[in-house]
């Protein structure tokens, strides 16, 4: 079983986001970065499939040089190899060119299974894996909350809205976009981190960029839709003021 | 040609998914603004109920893309059928509700025509050279103005809850069947009909007060203080997805697009950032209180009352104030 897993480096969840001067992207200078949340689950799923069925996990990431950090993390957790597709784009990268660059690199090997997270925490298009599947001509499904690889196919359960599910089987090779909660992502062990240093990490240039068909003109902090009353002071003062307001203004507590 | 806005509507459980009506409303506005006609298409096998609902809206045409192989849903069958619809209609804009089903087929459909999908938009505004689509970045912390480039069709999917379904102009459209040819050999997935997950023991939809915890609670043992707060205020405990994913509370407590939809009198969001998938499940609450250490958290855009602070300090203070 040869498994490719597409992972992305994104600004850490608690880093303050500020818009840069040209209004097209965020200020990157003081940001901390991490492996995108949903991709953690995709990576864990890939490693678990390998543990059950044997084979190889190849982690692939598209992005600037710092993206190799998440590839090292993947190697430390149990991926066998990593491919870094270099793309320096200090702006929104639309999903079609991103998927084309990934598909180009992935097409050089024949994967039985390609996994990705369902959507990224930064740009949130939620499309990349699906487009990669279309470009490679393989079957796909999304919002995967359970999976089992059997002879030549993968059985999955996909989540629908409001507590509904759909079960389906796809022939391999296939692409799955993984939903959060499908497993419990492991931490990298100390041994794993040391071992990762010796594992192959290859860097390749991104394929020439193609027409994006969409362009982000500017980014900005959205306007407030509600007049929030902020309750100030230390926690006790704020809590008392809130409870008083809920009783008098909102008429909720008696 | 290229003179239409096409809405791809969605049926669920033999009924029109109400999110489709929101997209019809957006389509009516876009068509009027751009001087285009509006066509709705409904794919599926048994379409009577959905067609009846769509027929009551103001449309220039209503197409039923009917084929037995469109049920149960598969991305392959949908893209094959809708690809034929695209070839016949050659629309300028294609608007799609950003549902879990659309996530599955729309990027493939657009890519199969070498086009791009502008996904999960929350607004459409007029621009100098065509409409500007507004979408969210960083889970709602930032908005982006996006335009479509190159040749149409331009595919756009719209987030739920952004165009009020009540703003749909009513009318009387006559459903028209469109023949599509599909063959079972085109469908790679063996798919089963959707099924409801295990019965939920907790029905939060009738709760009057919900104390809801998010990732900001940080540790499983901190859930206990939230439980005490819920008891003190006379409410039920709810949670955002990460808390459920971690296994700190059972799935039946999840609020949001894949969990329960609630409309209590009071919703306390504790350490919840306010992602669209969470908001869709609780925006209907009468009074929303948010407690978050980040004054810029998107949840505050929807909160009536806010406290900027650490949930682990504010929760005990609230319990004290309630007992005081
Ligand atoms: C298809 C799909 C379906 C989904 N369905 C759902 C769903 O049904 N329900 C759902 O909730 N999500 C759902 N999600 C996930 C959603 O996108 C968000 O990831 C999730 O809602 C975030 O949860 P959160 O706000 O608790 O966590 P985060 O986004 O991590 O936010 C945590 C917040 O806590 C604050 N915080 C941290 N520490 C403290 C502290 N000590 N004191 C006070 N504040 C603190 C932070 O400032 C932050 O604002 C879905 C996603 C997808 C793609």
Structure overview:
- The complex is a heterodimer of chains A (about 250) and B (about 325).
- Chain A has about 250 residues and is α/β, with parallel strands linked by helices.
- Chain A has helices at about 35-55, 70-75, 95-105, 130-135, 190-195, 235-250; strands at about 1-5, 10, 35, 55-65, 80-85, 115, 140-150, 155-160, 165-170, 175-180, 200-205, 215-220, 230.
- Chain A folds into 2 domains: about 1-205, Rossmann fold (3-Layer(aba) Sandwich); about 225-255.
- Helix content of chain A is about 25%, strand content about 30%.
- Chain A has a 9-stranded mixed beta sheet with strand order 9-8-7-10-6-1-4-5-11, sandwiched between helices. A two-stranded antiparallel sheet of chain A has the order 2-3.
- In chain A, a hairpin with a 2-residue loop joins strand 7 and strand 8.
- The longest helix of chain A has 17 residues, at about 35-55.
- Chain B is of the alpha/beta class and about 325 residues long.
- Chain B folds into 2 domains: about 5-190, Rossmann fold, CATH 3.40.50.620; about 200-324, 3-Layer(aba) Sandwich (Rossmann fold).
- In chain B, the strands form 3 sheets. Chain B has a 9-stranded mixed beta sheet with strand order 9-8-7-10-6-1-4-5-11, sandwiched between helices. In chain B, strands 15-14-16-17-18 form a 5-stranded parallel beta sheet.
- In chain B, helix 3 (about 75-90) packs across helix 4 and helix 5 (about 225-235) runs parallel beside helix 8 (about 310-324).
- Chains A and B meet through helix 3, helix 4, strand 7, strand 9 and strand 12 of A and helix 4, strand 7, strand 8, strand 9 and strand 12 of B.
- Strand 12 of chain A pairs antiparallel with strand 9 (about 140-150) of chain B.
- The structure holds flavin-adenine dinucleotide.
- Flavin-adenine dinucleotide sits at the interface of chains B and A.
């Amino acid at each position: 079983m040869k498994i490719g897993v597409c992972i992305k480096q994104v600004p850490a969840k608690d880093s303050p986001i500020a818009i840069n001067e040209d209004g097209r992207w965020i200020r990157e200078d003081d940001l901390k970065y991490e492996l995108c949340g949903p991709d953690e689950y995709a990576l864990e799923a890939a490693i678990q499939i390998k543990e059950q069925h044997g084979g190889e996990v190849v982690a692939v990431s598209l992005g600037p040089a710092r993206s190799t950090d998440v590839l090292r993390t993947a190697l430390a957790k149990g991926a066998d190899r990593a491919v870094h597709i270099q793309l320096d784009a200090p702006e929104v990268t639309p999903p079609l060119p991103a998927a084309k660059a990934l598909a180009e690199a992935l097409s050089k090997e024949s994967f039985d299974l390609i996994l990705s997270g369902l959507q990224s925490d930064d740009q949130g298009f939620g499309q990349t894996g699906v487009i990669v599947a279309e470009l490679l001509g393989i079957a796909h499904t999304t919002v995967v909350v359970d999976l089992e690889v059997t002879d030549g196919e993968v059985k999955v359960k996909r989540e629908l809205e409001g507590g509904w599910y759909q079960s389906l089987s796809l022939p391999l090779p296939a692409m799955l976009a993984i939903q959060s909660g499908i497993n419990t992502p492991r931490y990298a062990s100390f041994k794993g981190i040391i071992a990762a240093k010796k594992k192959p990490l290859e860097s390749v240039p991104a394929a020439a960029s193609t027409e994006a068909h969409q362009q982000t003109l500017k980014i900005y902090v959205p306007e407030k839709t509600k007049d929030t009353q902020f309750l100030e002071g230390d926690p006790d003062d704020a809590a008392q003021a809130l409870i008083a307001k809920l009783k008098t203004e909102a008429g909720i507590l008696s | 040609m290229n003179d239409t806005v096409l809405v791809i509507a969605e049926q669920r459980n033999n009924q029109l998914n109400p999110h489709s009506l929101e997209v019809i409303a957006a389509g009516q506005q876009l068509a009027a603004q751009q001087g285009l006609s509006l066509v709705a298409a409904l794919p599926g096998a048994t379409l009577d109920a959905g067609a009846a609902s769509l027929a009551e809206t103001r449309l220039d045409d209503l197409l039923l893309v009917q084929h037995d192989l469109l049920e149960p849903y598969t991305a392959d069958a949908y893209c094959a059928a809708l690809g034929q619809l695209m070839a016949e209609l050659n629309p300028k804009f294609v608007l799609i509700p950003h549902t879990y089903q659309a996530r599955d087929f729309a990027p493939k459909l657009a890519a199969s025509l070498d086009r791009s999908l502008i996904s999960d938009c929350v607004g459409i505004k007029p621009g100098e050279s065509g409409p500007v689509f507004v979408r969210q970045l960083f889970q709602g912390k930032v908005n982006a103005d996006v335009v479509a480039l190159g040749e149409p069709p331009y595919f756009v999917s719209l987030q739920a809850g952004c165009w009020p379904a009540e703003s749909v102009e009513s009318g009387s459209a006559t459903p028209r069947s469109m023949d599509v040819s599909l063959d079972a050999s085109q469908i790679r997935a063996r798919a089963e009909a959707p099924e409801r997950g295990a019965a939920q023991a907790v029905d939060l939809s009738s709760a009057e007060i919900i104390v809801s915890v998010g990732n900001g609670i940080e540790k499983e043992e901190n859930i206990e203080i939230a439980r005490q707060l819920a008891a003190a205020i006379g409410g039920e405990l709810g949670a955002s997805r990460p808390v459920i994913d971690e296994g700190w509370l059972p799935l039946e407590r999840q609020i949001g697009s894949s969990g329960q939809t609630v409309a209590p009198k009071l919703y306390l969001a504790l350490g919840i950032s306010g992602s669209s998938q969470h908001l869709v499940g609780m925006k209907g609450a009468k009074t929303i209180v948010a407690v978050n250490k980040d004054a810029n958290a998107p949840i505050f855009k929807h909160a009536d009352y806010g406290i900027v602070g650490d949930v682990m300090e504010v929760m005990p203070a609230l319990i004290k104030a309630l007992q005081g």
